[in-house]
TrEMBL record:
SMART domains: AAA
Higher taxonomy: Bacteria, Pseudomonadati, Bacteroidota, Flavobacteriia, Flavobacteriales
One Pfam assignment: ABC_tran
GO MF term (any one): ATP binding
UniProt-listed Gene3D superfamilies: P-loop containing nucleotide triphosphate hydrolases
Name of the protein described by the UniProt record: ABC transporter ATP-binding protein
Family: Belongs to the ABC transporter superfamily.
Top-level lineage group: Bacteria
Residue ranges of domain ABC transporter in the record: 2-234
Keywords on record: ATP-binding, Nucleotide-binding, Translocase, Transport
Length: 234
């Protein structure tokens, strides 16, 4: 599903050149749950932004579903984001002035989905995530865990090929955080492909593979197979 080869990202100012990614190569197969970890400044968020087509690479190759993403124009990136990628952010990024129903529905409006179809999808997704009784509420009337469930519903509503989660439990207490991780695990069990950035070893334990980054490079990959960790050093 995702094939990255020798991907680099350089940020330049008049005085400083910073290499945020340095010849990164990795593969994420369809249906995998992969975590990226590393200290601040390791490049993990930059990598997630490039995979999510929120930023572009300076060099190298990034193929999504067999198509090269490096070099495509913003209009093309926006179309792929809407159709293929679902985002779950640490800060939820819900619109406070919209109800839960409207927040979940919004991506379908951007994609031109008919009103009757939007209504069916919102109801089905809310039922699936256990928030159907909250559809008329507003984000500030919900707990953190409920807000993140709404964010996940919004991310899934256009049936994306991949879910990108950026510190999805970062603003939650342990109880709500655990609920979100169990939700992501259920989605993965249902066939979803998930790429998650986290600082939490506990959250990473829910995934199949953990990629450790430092100084813009992949240092190791740890494959979890039936409670046995296999470490592959780069």
């Amino acid at each position: 599903m995702i094939q990255i080869n020798q991907l680099s990202k350089v940020f330049r100012t008049e005085e400083v050149e910073t290499k945020a990614l340095n010849d990164v190569s990795l593969t994420i197969k369809e249906g995998e749950f992969v975590t990226v970890m590393g200290p601040s400044g390791s490049g993990k968020s930059t990598l997630l932004n490039i995979v999510g087509l929120l930023d572009s690479a300076s060099s190298g190759s990034y193929q999504l579903l067999g198509k090269e993403m490096v070099g495509i124009k913003e209009r093309g990136r926006a179309k792929i984001r809407k159709q293929q990628i679902g985002f779950v952010f640490q800060n939820f990024n819900l619109i406070d002035e919209l109800s839960v129903y409207d927040n979940i529905e919004l991506p379908m409006i951007y994609n031109g989905v008919a009103s009757s179809e939007r209504s069916k999808r919102v109801q089905a997704m809310a039922e699936r995530l256990g928030i159907s009784h909250r559809l008329k509420h507003y984000p500030q009337q919900l707990s953190g865990g409920q807000q993140q469930r709404v964010a996940v519903a919004r991310a899934l509503i256009n049936e994306p090929k991949i879910i990108l989660a950026d510190e999805p439990t970062g603003n939650l207490d342990s109880k709500n955080g655990n609920e979100v991780m169990e939700l992501l695990t259920d989605l993965h069990a249902g066939g979803a492909t998930i790429l998650m950035v986290t600082h939490s070893d506990y959250d990473a334990s829910f995934s199949q593979k953990t990629i450790l980054m430092k100084d813009g490079m992949v240092m190791s990959e740890k494959q979890q197979t039936k409670n046995i960790d296999i470490v592959v050093n780069s």
